[in-house]
Write a structure and sequence with these properties.
UVB_sens_RUS_dom, 3 domains, 13 helices, mainly alpha, single chain
Length: about 425
């Protein structure tokens, strides 16, 4: 029975939102909403906002970290919009807007050179780093935003150095082109992570709506800022640094809020080393919190996945050492301070995970303060010891506790190159 005395026949709801009920009274079926009149009005406004700016089926249709990420992403986009206004004003002043001695031809050439160098930078960066953007989306996302701030700062300073204005803005254009590639590609990777119903297009479309709304708000604020900063370089630089600090902080919080359930090199290494230490499997949240989000150069032993055979063994003796007591479809070697992994043609995803785990184990051994002096013979001994550790611990690591921690093992984001090797002889 409902509050009006009718018999409730059925109830329905749209997603996780407001519920309706069907009741019959005096032979007539009626459809009514649950809740008070004031609550219904406020709920209608919320539902309208959700339908315009959030993916259909929110929150069930997206990952649990979606709202937190979008909040920080919106804040960084707003601050970046304001910084961009200051940079654009400086660029226009630098090409001669407001200067009667400047010519249209000179300004056009400068603009074309900036766009042209940016196009070349976009192509070169996509060629060199395109395959890294999936596996290290967080790092490159944050890197792109830092580089974007550097580019805008260069544009603000450029008018004060007229002798090298074109060089500065062209360099900034290259940086911004890299930002465009890295930012767009990593946003696509994060969209794949957020989509829980294969609704990548809907999430991308609503993200575009959110960004448009933020840019509109930034435009309105910029209209108030422009009269204040015109011919006031000290205030321009001060506001730029304020917006940049907010931008970088929001970006850091955004990438830190992402909790990916798939393995990349960093997360797999973190989880495996923790397991070898105390036999505990980290949850996705714990692994993501420990994952570095800044690009690191030279701090750890690099790992190359999917290399040629000659990167692992350069003689029959070394090949025999790599095959010693090894029945796995991959080979490991250490060459020039780098751990190289050669993958067989019949290797599965499980084999790829094991190869990366062994590489992480070798890296841990090499970084140990008590490690042996890295002679070539000692390096092979380290590889054989890591192989024994994998034989003892990998199966319980993968089959036992790992599958209970919501970590996906049927799909990885490990950055494998395309070399595959089929070796003929295995010596025990």
């Amino acid at each position: 029975m409902d509050k009006n005395g009718g018999l409730v026949l059925a109830t329905e709801r749209y997603g996780s939102g407001q519920t309706w009920k069907y009741s019959v009274s005096d032979g007539v079926m009626k459809r009514t909403r649950d809740g008070s009149e004031a609550g219904l009005r406020s709920h209608s406004v919320v539902e309208l906002f959700k339908s315009v700016f959030l993916p259909q089926g929110y929150p069930e249709s997206v990952s649990s970290d979606y709202l937190q990420y979008q909040f920080w992403d919106t804040l960084q986009a707003f601050s970046s919009s304001l910084s961009g206004t200051l940079a654009t004003q400086a660029s226009l002043r630098g090409v001669g807007v407001g200067n009667q001695e400047a010519t249209v031809a000179a300004a056009t050439v400068t603009w074309l050179l900036r766009d042209g160098t940016g196009m070349l930078g976009r192509i070169l960066f996509a060629w060199r780093k395109g395959s890294k953007l999936d596996s290290e989306a967080k790092k490159w996302r944050l890197f792109a935003d830092v580089l974007n701030d550097i580019a805008m700062f260069m544009e603000i300073l450029a008018p004060h150095f007229p002798a090298c204005f074109t060089l500065v803005v062209c360099t900034a254009g290259i940086f911004k082109s890299i930002v465009g590639v890295a930012g767009g590609a990593t946003r696509a990777a994060l969209t794949v992570h957020q989509a829980r119903r294969d609704n990548m297009a809907d999430i991308s479309a609503k993200d575009g709506s959110q960004e448009t709304l933020v840019n509109l708000a930034g435009l309105l604020v910029s209209l108030l800022l422009i009269p204040l900063v015109t011919d006031n370089p000290v205030l321009t630089v001060s506001l730029f640094f304020l917006f940049t600090v907010l931008h970088l902080f929001a970006n850091y919080k955004a990438v830190r809020s992402v909790v990916m359930e798939t393995f990349n090199e960093a997360r797999l290494s973190i989880v495996m080393q923790q397991y070898l230490k105390d036999r505990r499997i980290l949850s996705p949240s714990e692994a993501n919190q420990r994952e570095p989000v800044f690009l690191q150069f030279g701090k750890t032993t690099p790992v190359k996945l999917g290399v040629r055979l000659q990167d692992v063994a350069q003689s029959p003796e070394e090949l025999n050492l790599a095959l010693k007591e090894n029945n796995m479809p991959f080979l490991l070697g250490i060459r020039s301070g780098c751990i190289c992994v050669c993958l067989g043609t019949d290797a599965s995803v499980r084999d790829e995970i094991r190869a990366m785990c062994q590489a992480a184990c070798v890296s841990n051994m090499l970084s140990c303060p008590t490690a042996l002096k890295p002679t070539q013979q000692n390096l092979w001994e380290i590889l054989h010891e890591s192989q024994k550790q994998m034989d003892a611990h990998f199966s319980p690591f993968l089959k036992g506790e790992l599958t209970q921690c919501d970590l996906l093992i049927n799909l990885t984001l490990l950055d494998w190159d395309e070399w595959r090797v089929e070796w003929k002889t295995k010596n025990s």
